[in-house]
Amino acid sequence: MIKTSVTQKIAFLIFGMVLFMVGTELLLRAGGWVYYGWWQKGAQSLQEDNRITAEDQLLSDRSGDIGAARRVLCVGDSFTFGFGAPFGNSYPAQLQALCKVNAKDLYVIYNCGIPGCSSAELLRRFSGYLKKYNPDIVFLLVGSNDISNPGFSEIVSAGQGRQTCFSSFSNLIFRLRIYKVFRFVQESIQKLILTTYLTRNNIVKEEMDEQNSEIQIAYSFFLQGELERARQLFRKVISDNPTYAHTYLFLGQLYAATEEFSKALDCFEKFISLRPYSSRRKELFEHLYRIYLDDPDLRNEAKRLMKKIPSDKVFRNPGIPFIISREEVERNLERNLQELVILTRREGARLVLQTYPRNPRYGNVNRIIRESAEKHSIPLVDNEIEFRRLPEIGKYFITDGHPNSEGYSIMAQKAFEMLMSVVR
Predict the structure, then answer these.
(1) Which of 306, 353, 365 is nearest to 148 (CA)?
(2) Are 120 and 324 in contact (CB under 8 A)?
């Protein structure tokens, strides 16, 4: 009988684990493709964003050959996909509607927005999009995920820049389906533990008792974009009840949304001092992390407060994650935009760049987009400028900074105006 050494047993165990993980990864990817195909097929009958539905509706509304229609490809992230609005209310869908009513020529609009997409990820897919849709005009809005998730920033074009071994390995791990499943299971278990802990310790009831009707009204004003009314009411609650911790949390969110980061940090610090073990510590950490990314002058202060958030069995303070320098992220974005410009021109299509409508986190992205448009002589739809001209700007957005249906309507109108000027 052949004896198996300890080394061989360990080797077999490692090989088995690797084989299991590879097999699981392949199964998850296959399942994802099946689900995506099913979702896309269902979307054909549910939203105008779908390419087949758009073409069929165009041909039923107006006579003509679809081959003679001008093809417009909209690419980007969740702002192109239409996150924050119901199906059929993304800016590409509303642009399609404007073209059907107001344009003399026949147009078909393709929405290839993918939530979470970075400039590097788009660059991987872009040649495929150009071959598949053969567009005459491309509207491009990308870069927000490069900035808000700088650990994912990378360059994919040959000979352009370089990556560290760590960032390359991180990018590989984050794209694995098995890693995402692990994170989902981990977060689900944490959520279950948190719910049980809060219920047993009566923490939820205490926090709900603290959030009186005035705080709820002020927060509803904030969600509706009536920022000044919300600000005044939050201040009144603080004046009447300075120990109500959640007033400081919500007012801090308001200050962060209006780029008053120093005031936001003061409010968040007060919230931590009043309720260090709040059920909303994860939410607070995310707000502080965004300020850490957005304002280099306040980075140390934001870092200090992040470290101050206590950990226990329901919340583990992750500390400051690995971050590629903001300068490197911005250089990567500039290079990826340049590659996208080159690919578009190589296929003979016209490119239109767009800025993000309004979000403090994306200020640097918009600057880079404007500089790229000027450098390469590309038409620009400056959504940020257009939205800043609007009264009560907050009513056009949901709380995380994505536009709602009304916000996407404005983006569609500006895109339509640019489209008409480009095709003249």
Answers:
(1) 365
(2) no
Which CA distances in Å does 78 have to 35, 143, 256, 401? 19, 11, 21, 11
Q: Is 138 left (phi over 0), alpha (psi -120 to 50) or beta?
A: beta
Q: What are the extents of the domains in the chain? A: 7-43, 47-153+346-422, 201-323
Whether the CB-CB separation of 105 and 141 falls below 8 Å is answered with no
Residue 213 burial (CB count, 10 A): 7
pLDDT, tens digit, 9 for 90 and up, residues 18-55: 888 888 888 887 876 776 566 555 444 443 444 444 44
The amino acid that residue 58 corresponds to is L
Tokens of 204: 């939820």
β-sheet with 380-381: strand ranges across? 107-113, 70-76, 137-141, 350-354, 380-381
Tell me, which fold does domain 201-323 have in CATH?
1.25.40
Indicate the residue type of 94.
Q
Give the three-state DSSP class for 256. Answer: helix
Interior/surface letters 337-353, b for 16+ CB within 10 angstroms, e for the rest? bebbbebbeeeebbbbb
Q: What is the pLDDT of residue 85?
A: 92
Other beta carbons within 10 angstroms of residue 391's beta carbon come to: 5
Q: What distance in Å separates the CA atoms of residue 23 and residue 57, rounded to the nearest whole number? A: 42
CA–CA distance, 420 with 103 (Å, rounded to integer) = 8
CATH topology of domain 47-153+346-422: Rossmann fold (3.40.50)
Q: Which residue has the tokens 């981990």?
A: 186
What are the distances in angstroms from CA 196 to CA 24, 253, 260, 313, 355? 31, 27, 36, 12, 44
180-196 in b/e form (b: 16+ CB < 10 A) is eeeeeeeeeeeeeebee
Encode pLDDT of 343-392 as tens digits.
999 999 999 999 999 754 566 899 999 999 999 999 999 999 999 888 87
What is the spatial distance between Cα 151 and Cα 146, in angstroms, rounded to a whole number?
8
In three-state secondary structure terms, 275 is coil
Bridge-partner residues for 381, per DSSP? 354
The segments of the chain whose pLDDT lies below 50 read 1, 42-64, 151-153, 155-164, 166, 204, 360
